[in-house]
Write a structure and sequence with these properties.
about 80 residues, alpha+beta, Arc Repressor Mutant, subunit A, 3 strands, about 40% helix
Amino acid sequence: MTAATPRRGPGRPARRTLELTEPMWTLEDVATYLNVKHRWLQNNWKTVGIPMTKVGNQLRCFPTDLAEWLEQQAA
């Protein structure tokens, strides 16, 4: 095994690469789109199930994920 090859032991998943095809929305972008206050969104995104992701200490969301979530809510 070479130094450049990461070791994968039991229980360690293989690394995945993520290709970003669209910019992620900020908390403020999502709040504006949903017409809610950003503080409400910050406090309730997990409870409501909004597909937000923590990037560092900030919440972000892909617009397509949000659109899919909204369609599921309407059904």
